[in-house]
Amino acid sequence: MAQLKVENLVVRYGDVVAVDGVSFGVGEGEFVSLLGPSGCGKTTTLRCIAGLESASGGRIEIDGQVVADGPREVPPNLRGVNMVFQSYAVWPHMTVFDNVAYGLRTQRVSRAEIQTRVAEALRLVGLTGFAERFGTELSGGQQQRVAVARAVVTAPRLLLFDEPLSNLDAGLRERMRFELVELQRRLGRTSIYVTHDQSEAMVMSDRIILMHKGRIVQEGTPQDLYERPSCRFAAEFVGSANLLSGVLESVSADGFGMVALQGGLRLRARLPGHAPAAGLAVLVCIRPESVQLAGQASGENVFPAHVSRVSYLGGVLNCAVRAGSLDFRAEFPAHSRMQAGTDVDLRIAPDNVIIVPDSD
Ligand SMILES: Nc1ncnc2c1ncn2[C@@H]1O[C@H](COP(=O)(O)OP(=O)(O)OP(=O)(O)O)[C@@H](O)[C@H]1O
Ligand SMILES: [Mg+2]
Q1: What is the pLDDT of residue 359?
Q2: What CATH fold (topology level) applies to the domain 2-231?
Q3: What is the pLDDT of residues 124-133, one digit of tens each?
Q4: What pLDDT, on a 0 to 100 scale, did the predictor assign at position 360?
Q5: Which ligand lies nearest to the CA atom of residue 36 in the structure?
Q6: Which residue minimizes the CA distance to atom 1 of ligand 1?
Q7: pTM score, two decimals?
Q8: What is the spatial distance between Cα 86 and Cα 69, in angstroms, rounded to a whole number?
Q9: Is 168 helix (H, G, I), strand (E, B) or coil?
């Protein structure tokens, strides 16, 4: 059963439709990301769930309780929802202890219990020993942890995160990704995490809700989104993709079809759930790492190509490849020692030639 249900949420600011009919559910204990480019409506959706923003239409339910339905709204402090903001919003003139204890004090929790629960929350985020420091005496990463401790200490029904890691340096950001996920698993709290960073969403989430222009374009596990993008936008936003135009020549009963790509190459491709009819124009998505060196292999989806450029990225080589008049990117392992100017035979498994509906 979904612990959070958002139904047909609409938010308008004058002529701007920030959220345009968004519906989704989040199960108990799930970690779900709202992913999408700047301005697609992620923060607005999150703020509506928290009760910090009024919807123009739609309905929100938490644990079976309707918290927003038209003009009927439960105030934020009665929703059992806490939010961690990008800016952390740690009060600088208060100690770490007082920052974290704030929510418990407003709930009139006893002094002894506050002591225990704040200490536990600080331990969870690795800030034991920081209780008496002031907000101004903390680094960005430490402030971020205080914000997380403050959000979890009242044991809310839902934890909401709005890009909480984007102000941190790259190394700390990566470490904090894993720390946050681990903390969420230990607490078992249902969490909704907003980010525009696809790799962050991929490594952290049980499920990703991909948004574009105020709408949901695809919903699924990170693997679903990566391996079965539902449209051009999804293919380009999640991971890197070669998107090639072609015509679906034939369709067979085993779920595969033949695609004639512009530029001459013919490839066997996996058909999507609702397969287009033979003869129609299609878009094909090929991930760079799906392009393999064929070696001595011959047969299906093997074709000659020319490697025109090689960029060394450490473990892998990112290569510009030309087959006929078709240009695309391929990723080969560094140990292949591929050099620019080499003629090679390449292979792409039919399962990795993904037909995508050509829409956004
Ligand atoms: N208070 C407001 N008044 C008018 N327009 C607003 C307001 N808040 C948001 N918007 C607009 O609504 C749209 C969605 O904004 P939102 O903040 O939800 O985007 P976002 O997906 O969180 O983007 P980002 O990744 O940049 O944070 C944007 O076009 C934004 O300009
Ligand atoms: Mg935002």
Answers
A1: 61
A2: Rossmann fold (3.40.50)
A3: 888 999 999 9
A4: 52
A5: 1
A6: 13
A7: 0.90
A8: 27
A9: coil
